[in-house]
Amino acid sequence: MQEHVQLDQRTINDELLNGVLGFRSWWMPALGISVLVFLAGAAAFGYMLNKGVGVTGLNRPVFWGFFMVNFVFWIGISHAGIMISAILRLNHAEWRRPVTRAAEVLTVFSLTAALMAAPLVHVGRPWRADLWVFPYDFARGVWINIRSPFIWDPSAVMTYLTASTLFVIIALLPDLAIIRDRTTGWVNKVYSVLCLGWRGTPRQWKLQAIAGILLSALVLPVFVSVHSIVSWDFAVQIGVEGWHSTIFAPYFIIGAIHSGVAAVATVMVLMIWGFKWQNYLGPDHLDAIGRLLIVVGVTWFFFFFLEWIFALYTLEAPDIALRELQVFQWPWSGLFILFLITAFFFPVGAWLFKSVRRNLWLMFITTVSVNVGMWLERFLIIVPGLMRRQHMVFDWGSYHPSMIEILMVSATFAWVVMGMILFSKVFPLIPLFDVKEAMVFRDETKIGRRTVPATIRE
Amino acid sequence: MPNGSSPNGTAHAAAAAHADIGRDMLARHEKTAPAFKAAVVVCAVLLVLGVIGFVLRLTGGVGDKVLWGYHAALFAFILTTCQAAPMAAIAPRMAKAEWRRPISRTAELFTVVGIFNLLLFIPLLWVLPSLEDERRSLWFFTENADVPVYSPHIWTGLALLALVAIGVMMLWVSALPDLAALRDHSSGWRQRWGSRLARGWYGTSKQWHMQKNRLGILGAFYFLMLVFVHFLVSVDFAMTLIPGWIDALYPATHAANALQAGAATVIVTMYVLHRWCGYKDVITLEHFWGLGKLMFALSLLWFWFWFSSFIILWYGKKPSEQAAIELLMTGPYWPIFLTTFLLCFVVPLFVLMWNNVRKSIMGPTLIACGILIGTFLDRVRLYVGAYSVADRSHQKELSLDAIPAAHTPGLEDILLILGVLGGSVLVYLLATRVFPVVNIWERKEGSMYEWHKPFHRTEVKVLAKPE
Could you report the per-residue pLDDT of B185-240, keeping only the tens digit for each? Predict the structure, then answer.
């Protein structure tokens, strides 16, 4: 990193705990708005439970609409945490330190938002979910149908949620102990329980470091499997020709990383604005994540290109018809152009300039743009894929989301925002111990006439 | 204390240390061991055998592509290994991984083997059928008659040429400071070569700045062109020859396999340099560990890409996809597929997962040898399998209706295999006489950026980050 600000431990504690031990002026209005939107979504959900799924825009043949788009979108965002935490930790990338906690927390809340979007809401009458299990179908003995992607899917998502939560808790322990030592009364008792007796002994530090590395290595295959399996929900079947493609797993993964890392960059900017953490997060960090985003974005575009080229390569009429629908028929054509511009050409083109990568506002706009585009991408895969006219299909047509769906989808966004805001009030969003370690590891040297920053290698 | 971090005395000492590194590395470069000469002779003999095999193959004509399966597989093998090896220099350099420094030239030097592979590609231009019969191809707009019927041949040829040209240019730009050192401190033909190739390199600030920028740009272009060539070759020279095999992931799999095999190629070369060429103190455990970790990650990627394709083709139960699986995995080539699976994924996973093995010199080297064998078998499975499918017209709507038997290599093929392997090594060996096989200037630069200092009760490595 070019810009080093050397701070003592007390200042680090004071500044990074300003959200937990202090009170930010924006905190209450932001929480209020997100709670209101969430409650509106909850009310819409209640209405749908009372009236049935007919109040949504879902109808033959488009039975996967906003809810499934949202499910895939939030699973995608959840890939940010592991990408930033595990991969960068294993690579000893120094700039990861202030970013990891927010990324991991974003993972956890995104996953719960995904679970709200699909299994809870999408099924329409969730109380009947017990009928999936009971009475038990003994046609296969006691074994479940492990060939069904709908068995793989919840298994992978729940494993990922468990691993991500563990990731957050393990990394939180030293910071919880600091809060414990700076609080009194019942708050102190709560943090005393939460920090699991952390005293910062050499053995505890060693165990925490080993747990972090082990979790990083073990969670990576889970991270890859989750979105692969989500993609196979679509791709293993041959019913929808546009979805039956071998590229889907890597294409979904790289798309998830694209949107997830962009979301982390958005959160980074918001943290700088909201908590005044310029001493910890700055243009250097945004520059680093911007460069990472260029690589991820270009790779995503390559897979997008392969997906398209091989859809045309099949020379099969339904495939070609789907692509014609996406590109030439209004409103899909307009959405398609918007998707390409917002997901790739505008942000990646902008990130090529260092001045953009180091500018808070421009990074905020471009990273939000990526997620607008990536949401549209999932929409354009799912809805036109289902609505094309086929042999032996007597209903076809378009899909218009109802206000009920829009409210419920908005509620998932509000849920994640609400979760992050509440988390920031109870736990520090930047890991204190990691930042302190970075300060200890810093050094500098003179090479020729220049003073150059240096770092102790872990 | 770091070199140059203190007053003038230390700065002079640092300059002297750099000069020592330069002198030492040049001296090693100029020394030709008897084993080197023996290796050149053996490789030359193998190359001659290969030429004989090629001539024998030519006598059978180029009309029957079934006969040329092994030739295509060898071309793809060199593309996958030697032409991907420079990525072991490009990727760590972009990621600013310090361990790359001595081995970056070792990897970049493989770009010259691309010239040899370009020669191997030429006969395939005659062997690959044109698009006249409207067969399925990447250039699927042939019905409009606007696309030349030799589009696969033209575009793949041009892309391959561009890849080789960019690679050689990158090697030259990277070697400029070392060539200038040869010009200034060597004698005889090496001095003349250094003088010719170093042009006007004097190490001014402007020249260093431009060299760094050009290396970055050429590295990025080499990577993009490598992926593009793999895309074209894997589709037009293999997939399109098997009716019904539609695998959108296959080009990316082909390229990802190349990254794994490229890393394996460099590790094996590093071992040779470490063990037999007097670079034991330069190419050390740190380099095997660094590249071994990358190879381990790429072995996991091998499985994920393969499984992502397999599950879709297998689950759908479409007859055309079942036939493709039978030809390439469960049918005539199943022993080859199984061996590839073991050598490229199972063995690397269960061996390299142990840090003790990963952090050794023999561990990554043995696994790299296995990966190279596995990759060769994989290319045989894919290319010989594809070339053994009989030519058909109007393949658009077809799937494989009969699975061809496995094509075992004849005498010509065996001679060709020996010749291509020997020829590739020979080209590399000769290139090491002109360009220092270990990067001298990057090593000097690294010595400026790295030092050790006491830290509490231990000693730690400190790394300067000038960028």
Answer: 888 888 888 888 888 889 898 999 999 999 999 999 999 999 999 999 999 999 98
Q: How far apart are CA A382 and CA B299, in angstroms?
A: 32
Per the CB < 8 Å rule, is A228 touching B461?
no
Q: What pTM, to 2 d.p., does this model score?
A: 0.90
On whether the CB atoms of residues B3 and B17 are closer than 8 A, the answer is yes
Match 């206000």 to its residue by tokens: A403
CA distance B280 to B283: 6
- Residue B398 distance to chain A (closest CA, Å): 11
pLDDT for the residue numbered A287: 92
Q: Taking CB atoms and an 8 Å cutoff, what residues of chain B touch A247?
A: 248-249, 252, 308
pLDDT for the residue numbered A359? 93
CB contact under 8 A, B252 and A306: yes
Let me know how long chain A is: 458
pLDDT digits (tens, 9 = 90+) for B92-144: 888 888 888 889 999 999 999 999 999 999 999 998 888 877 777 888 655 55
If you average pLDDT over residues B334-341, what whole number do you get?
96
Task: Name the phi and psi angles at A285, rounded to 5.
Answer: -65, -40
A93 to chain B: closest CA residue: B95
In whole angstroms, give the CA distance from residue A71 to residue A112.
10
- Return the residue of B nearest to A445 by Cα: B5
Chain A residues near any Cβ of chain B (below 8 Å): 1, 91, 221, 224, 228, 232, 235-238, 244-250, 302-303, 306-307, 309-315, 443-448, 450, 452-457
Chain B nearest CA to A148, separation (Å): 10
User: Picking from A380-389, A426-435, B6-15, B214-223, which range would have the lowest pLDDT averaged per residue?
Assistant: B6-15
Nearest-angstrom CA–CA distance, A75 and A360: 26
CA A190 from chain centre, in angstroms, equals 29
Which positions in chain A touch B396 (Cβ < 8 Å)? 315
Q: ipTM score here?
A: 0.90
Smallest CA–CA distance from B137 into chain A, residue? A313
To 5 degrees, how large is the angle CA B199–CA B200–CA B206? 130
